[in-house]
Amino acid sequence: YLLDELDIHILTSTKDLVTKNLQNNTPNNITLIGNPDFNQESDKLSFSDNFPLRSIRDKNDSTKIALLPYTQIEIEKLDSVFTASNKKIDAIFTGKNATESALKNLNSPQILHIATHGFFLENLEKDTKDSKMIGFDKNKVFNNPLLRSGLLFTNAKKAFLEDNGSDGILTAYEAMNLNLDNTDLVVLSACKTGLGDLKNGEGVYGLQRAFQTAGAKTVLMSLWVVNDEVTMKLMSAFYKNWILGKQTKREAFKNAQIEIQKMDKGKYKSPYYWGGFVMVGE
Predict the structure, then answer these.
(1) CA–CA separation, 113 vs 92, rounded Å?
(2) 3-class state of residue 67 by DSSP
(3) DSSP, res 96
(4) Nearest C-alpha neighbor of 191 from the set 158, 231, 153, 218
(5) For the packed helices 69-84 and 228-239, what is the interaxial angle rounded to 10 degrees?
(6) Which letter does DSSP use for residue 279 in this model?
(7) 187, 239 Cβ separation under 8 angstroms
(8) Alpha-carbon distances, residue 229 vs 73, 109, 153, 190, 235 (angstroms)
(9) Are 124 and 228 in contact (CB under 8 A)?
(10) Pairing verdict, β 218-222 and 185-189
């Protein structure tokens, strides 16, 4: 694979070539968010057949958003890595506490790790019976790619279906206003977080652009639907390499991808498991 032959850095602009390298800084202010309770207080609500995000439905109960139990294990493993290196974790939000408002209230953690569902509405039909979607006018969602990509948090199902601005879905539009001016790395451990519309002269609109606009220097994100269990293993390997192994974050990420290829006698050798994540920025 190309990964084995070249060291590829993905940048958002040429200024990243001359910006002071901060990759070897030791992170101290850390926030971990994962395993949200997507279906809290929404048992009476049900998805319609034309719901645009069928991939996030629970396979055993199509009326609910699928939970992500491995993200809980992921957060616990990362907590262990940071504890072993005597790093201070400012906050951990899981289960019912993994809310959109918890994220919005953060003040520029050096590392922000979010393990949840991500989405990008790429095939949205403009002419539908519904006048609103995720609390916004349907036409605005159709025309603005920053409203068609986002992350799900606790109570996301209610936010999707009640269309009243309920806390539970963070769109890329909202992510631009987060306080991340001193944030070295944002990890979006979720599906399709790197996708967005391509606009002439504007690059890719979406979560990557939104988090960097908010101040994040580097974003680690995914380009397709990723495997929950293998993502947990990839993230664990990445942080061990970076925090305990004293590697730069780019070296740590590349080496983690190589480790996944070799894990369990090559069970995860296919790029499907490790190639979906890319690191973009400084």
Answers:
(1) 10
(2) coil
(3) T
(4) 231
(5) 10
(6) E
(7) no
(8) 9, 26, 19, 12, 10
(9) no
(10) parallel
